[in-house]
Design goal:
Length: 231
């Protein structure tokens, strides 16, 4: 019973926590032996396309901005950088969690703190950009992006509270999965669905459909990750 409690709490607190854990908890996994699910891979690949190719491509002038008549200004630029950072951290931190070994625990916690900061910056500057700096009258898009951002920040705060105040790994894990599958990926789905919609991309229902699709895929991804299933 005591060993089970130690194993349950090995994901908690700080890089220095639980120095005297069991041999099983100290065992270091191979890098490729992570929390793999189809939905993590599916969402991760599209997320990398979105933040690295589309996002940083726009930032460095390799691709045209989403609205060609609006150049990339400082607020939007900072949003792109911090959005890319939190997304990349989420992809890694979902794959490797503290129970995978001492090194993974340290990296997971340090990156998690970076993600907390970059997530708040990304949401704040993204909201200013979509409602002011780059607002073009597209209200459904602005609302959809904001919904994703609110979910992201709310889940960040809830996940932090659960792990720091209550040491509840399960609730922390569920909240941080929501950050990735909803907060990071809903903005991507809004761009991706428009990209593949062809002649229907300007229809008023396209953004609600994109958000709904993101919510469904996110729920599938969260359930698979929580249950340790491939699908």
């Amino acid at each position: 019973m005591q060993d089970d409690a130690i194993t349950h709490h090995v994901e908690i607190a700080s890089p220095q926590a639980h120095q005297g854990t069991t041999a099983a908890a100290k065992a270091q996994r191979n890098f490729v032996d992570g929390n793999f699910t189809f939905w993590w891979l599916f969402g991760g690949v599209l997320a990398l396309w979105f933040v690295l190719y589309k996002g940083l491509g726009v930032l460095f002038g390799l691709l045209p901005p989403p609205t060609p008549t609006q150049p990339v200004r400082p607020i939007f630029a900072l949003h792109l950088v911090t959005a890319a950072l939190i997304t990349l951290i989420c992809v890694y931190n979902i794959f490797h969690t503290p129970s995978h070994g001492r090194t993974y625990r340290t990296v997971h916690i340090v990156l998690g703190r970076m993600a907390m900061i970059s997530g708040f910056i990304s949401f704040s500057f993204g909201a200013v950009a979509v409602w002011w700096e780059r607002y073009n009258g597209d209200l459904p898009f602005a609302i959809g992006i904001t919904v994703g951002g609110v979910l992201q920040v709310g889940a960040q705060l809830y996940g932090w509270y659960q792990i720091r105040k209550h040491k509840d790994v399960t609730k922390h894990k569920r909240a941080m999965l929501l950050v990735f599958f909803y907060g990071c990926l809903i903005p991507m789905w809004m761009r991706f669905v428009v990209l593949v919609a062809g002649p229907y991309k300007n229809e008023p229902w396209i953004y609600p459909v994109a958000v709904a699709f993101g919510l469904i895929v996110g729920q599938l991804g969260m359930r698979a990750s929580m249950a340790g299933r491939l699908l």
